[in-house]
């Protein structure tokens, strides 16, 4: 027996309930897949932002180490070595602050809520309500 009604007959209640259950099941699977995709994309963005924080820290440390030594030795010719080291430390502190702000801006673009899934779930609820009425 086919679920497709013939022109002369109407579908039975069992057929309608079966079709509805099948449609709802398919809809649920699609929503879950959409949520997984959105969460994966947001996790990738968060990972890249975290990598930028780590990279900024490491690059800042290496740069500060070697350039600080070179700059302190260069300034030591004109002023006391202690003052030269303090000036260099302040310069690298400003550099680190700029990198932190850039990383924070990128991290703020990450959305923990799967926006598209929320939107389609609201549409699905409205669709189900319309079926009920």
Automatic annotation (TrEMBL):
InterPro entries: Phage_holin_3_6
Keywords: Membrane, Transmembrane, Transmembrane helix
Transmembrane domains' residue ranges: 50-75, 81-102
Protein name as annotated: Phage holin family protein
Gene source species: Nonomuraea monospora
């Amino acid at each position: 027996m086919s679920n497709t009604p013939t022109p002369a007959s109407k579908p039975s209640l069992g057929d309608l309930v079966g079709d509805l259950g099948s449609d709802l099941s398919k809809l649920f699977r699609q929503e879950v897949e959409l949520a997984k995709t959105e969460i994966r994309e947001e996790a990738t963005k968060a990972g890249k932002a975290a990598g930028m924080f780590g990279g900024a820290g490491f690059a800042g440390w290496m740069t500060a180490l070697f350039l600080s030594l070179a700059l302190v030795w260069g300034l030591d010719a004109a002023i006391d070595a202690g003052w030269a080291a303090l000036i260099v430390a302040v310069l690298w502190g400003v550099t680190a602050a700029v990198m932190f702000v850039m990383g924070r801006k990128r991290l703020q673009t990450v959305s923990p809520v799967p926006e598209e899934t929320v939107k389609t779930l609201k549409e699905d609820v409205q669709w189900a309500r319309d079926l009920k009425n």
